[in-house]
């Protein structure tokens, strides 16, 4: 069980009725989230937009750091996102990410090793602990109890590595394999919604990965219609790219965050799209940032 699955278990306590729209969105979020011969071109649509507002974003970030000091883990206590810059379609960003991932190093592990994950989360629906909570977790790389369908649509890091290693080149086939790997649990979920959920779930659990295989996931995501991108600030106060896909009727938007330097999974946000009695438009109701991921030899060991 990873950090996103653990957060999903917050549904165990029945919330107040007015939180139902939030819970539906949270459940969607936490069920997870080209050919080389083509000439590279400047993807100016999102890069130029980001550059045009860089000075403003820097000013906002500086103001935030002057007002609130960072804690010992580099996390600002009670950190709230300082900006959201909409970038439009995520297609070019995801293809750039695929190129960067494919050219990067592999992350490997062996049976007997563990995956160490340190993260921070703020859940405004938690009346007892509404502020940032930092957690450390260790997951066995090879865990037979999480493999071969024994844990539903959860998978061990070893099983996920094997999935990535054996992906085909065709994005349509990658989408189909992702649907089978993270199968549908909601009958109302469309095929496109299922594929987006499954592919972003793969990103969130790629603790160990083959770079060529992981790049194919980004390229498959780039072919899904309606995937948008924004530049945001995560729960740790860092810049991040947010991926999201919404329907007109959605009250909340579920975001999957990517590190802008590595394009790897960096966290998630659940943001109110409209105001109501409980939340204002733009409120980040649930937010998590992954601070450290590493392969270690023993449970309890830190990198």
UniProtKB/TrEMBL annotation:
**InterPro entries, sorted:** CU044_5270-like
Which residue ranges traverse the bilayer?
46-68
Q: What lineage, starting at the top, does this entry show?
A: Bacteria, Bacillati, Actinomycetota, Actinomycetes, Kitasatosporales
Please state what the protein is called. CU044_5270 family protein
**Keyword field:** Membrane, Transmembrane, Transmembrane helix
Q: Which organism is it from?
A: Streptomyces plumbiresistens
């Amino acid at each position: 069980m990873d950090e996103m699955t653990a957060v999903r278990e917050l549904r165990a306590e029945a919330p107040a009725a007015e939180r139902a729209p939030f819970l539906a969105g949270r459940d969607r979020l936490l069920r997870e989230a080209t050919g080389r011969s083509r000439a590279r071109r400047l993807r100016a649509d999102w890069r130029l937009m980001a550059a045009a507002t860089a000075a403003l974003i820097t000013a906002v970030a500086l103001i935030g750091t002057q007002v609130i000091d960072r804690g010992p883990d580099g996390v600002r206590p009670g950190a709230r996102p300082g900006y959201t810059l909409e970038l439009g379609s995520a297609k070019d960003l995801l293809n750039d990410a695929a190129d960067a991932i494919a050219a990067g190093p592999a992350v490997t592990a062996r049976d007997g090793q563990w995956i160490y994950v340190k993260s921070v989360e703020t859940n405004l629906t938690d009346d007892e602990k509404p502020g940032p909570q930092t957690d450390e977790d260790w997951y066995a790389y090879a865990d037979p109890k999480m493999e071969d369908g024994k844990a539903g649509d959860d998978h061990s890091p070893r099983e996920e590595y094997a999935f990535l290693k054996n992906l085909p080149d065709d994005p349509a086939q990658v989408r189909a394999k992702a649907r089978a790997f993270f199968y549908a649990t909601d009958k109302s979920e469309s095929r496109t919604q299922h594929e987006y959920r499954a592919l972003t779930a793969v990103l969130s659990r790629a603790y160990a990965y083959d770079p060529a295989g992981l790049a194919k996931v980004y390229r498959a995501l780039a072919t899904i219609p309606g995937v948008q991108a924004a530049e945001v600030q995560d729960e740790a106060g860092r810049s991040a790219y947010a991926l999201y896909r919404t329907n007109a009727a959605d009250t909340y938007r579920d975001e999957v965050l990517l590190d802008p330097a590595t394009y790897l999974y960096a966290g998630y946000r659940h943001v109110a799209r409209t105001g109501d009695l409980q939340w204002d438009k733009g409120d980040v109701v649930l937010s998590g940032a992954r601070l450290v991921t590493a392969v270690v030899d023993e449970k309890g060991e830190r990198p």
